[in-house]
Design a protein that fits this description.
The chain is built from 13 helices and eight strands. It is an alpha/beta fold. The two termini are 33 Å apart.
Length: 370
């Protein structure tokens, strides 16, 4: 399924007032976190590809001037995409994306055999298939750190090197989003490559952005007029009592009187210490996951109020814009999953700015191959 609001002829050409206009394509675009970051870095994102209908609707709500290919990428020919976008091999400046990584995720399962055999892990080769067809000038792929040790990424890198991409020891890096303006600890793999040489790294922030910086000034949840911030909680009285007993500003379930411990916590008192934990105002948040609306899934209680963080607060901790829209057809759990699965826009922007600088340098060089 292809959706768009504008015709595609010359769609990728930018305003002539801009010195250099750089184009990008977002594979596995989800709710649009990667696209937001690329746009904030100055790229023109031509289109996204996404199979999930709720994520696709969310993407369309916020990026109305883009193509959206709502399709299984395994069944969507990259040449069909090029025809629809009216571009030729070698013209695209940046091919970016995050192939679904649940099979590698440490949050998914303790059964590592099942995890590594997850067929979604092979979607990295669909990413490579698009690279071989588009021959983009640069490539950015984001994923979970565990992928760095898997043979799939090594095979992909070898193939890309053979077709002319510059690969070195810095092509794969594990970075913490908290070092790049994101108010949460979130270690991610970044793979980057160019047909023209090395892409530099962004500078690390000297100061972390805190939970208070991100959500400390929001209106009261339930009375804000923002349905994403006002989405009600449904908790049992026992759960409400447990939450109320967690000390403010960073308290944990281990601070509870033992009579309030759950049976699983009594059996394993040293495990899962973050569940029913509060965030700290003056620290970064923990990794925002798809379970961020559930106190039993991690340290997702508000630093002060007796509730989990709201969906809007979760989105802000991911650095989505404050007015970013999410599909009203989606349940609370589905929205939380979209937010948790998203790439933090600010993190992507910091990386993408270096890609833009790289492209500007090459394009401005009279001896370049552009």
């Amino acid at each position: 399924m292809l959706s768009k609001t504008n015709g595609y002829k010359n769609f990728y050409k930018m305003d002539s007032d801009k010195k250099y206009a750089f184009t990008a394509l977002d594979l596995f675009c989800g709710a649009g976190g990667l696209t937001v970051g690329l746009k904030q870095a100055g790229f023109t994102v031509l289109a996204g590809i996404e199979i999930n209908p709720l994520a696709a609707e969310t993407y369309s709500l916020n990026h109305k001037d883009h193509f959206l290919f709502q399709n299984d990428i395994r069944k969507l020919s990259p040449y069909e995409v090029m025809v629809n976008l009216n571009i030729k091999p070698g013209e695209l400046d940046l091919l970016a994306g995050c192939p679904p990584c649940q099979g590698f995720s440490s949050h998914r399962t303790r059964n590592k055999t099942i995890s590594l055999d997850d067929d979604r892990n092979d979607l990295i080769f669909e990413f490579v298939k698009y690279i071989e067809a588009f021959l983009p000038k640069t490539i950015m792929m984001e994923n979970v750190p565990a992928l760095a040790k898997d043979d799939r990424i090594k095979k992909a890198m070898n193939k890309l090197e053979r077709i002319g991409y510059y690969i070195d020891e810095n092509s794969i890096q594990i970075k913490d989003a908290a070092d790049y303006g994101v108010p949460q600890r979130r270690k991610r793999l970044i793979f980057k490559a160019s047909r023209y040489g090395k892409i530099e790294n962004p500078k690390i922030n000297s100061r972390k952005i805190t939970v208070k910086d991100a959500i400390g000034n929001l209106a009261e949840a339930g009375k804000s007029g923002d349905w994403l911030h006002d989405y009600p909680e449904a908790r049992t009285e026992k759960t409400k009592k447990i939450i109320s007993l967690i000390p403010k500003n960073g308290g944990s379930r281990s601070d509870l009187p033992i009579e309030y411990w759950l049976p699983c916590h009594k059996k394993n008192p040293g495990g899962y210490k973050d569940v029913y934990g509060r965030m700290s105002w003056n620290d970064v948040a923990p990794t925002i996951t798809g379970g961020c609306s559930n106190p039993s899934k991690g340290r997702f209680l508000h630093p002060e109020f007796n509730r989990t963080i709201t969906l809007r607060e979760a989105a802000l901790l991911q650095t989505f814009p404050s007015k970013y829209k999410f599909s009203r057809k989606a349940s609370k759990d589905n929205i939380a999953l979209m937010i948790g699965n998203a790439l933090p826009p600010e993190f992507i922007k910091r990386q993408a700015v270096e890609f833009r600088k790289h492209l500007e340098k090459i394009k401005g060089n009279k001896n370049g191959r552009f």
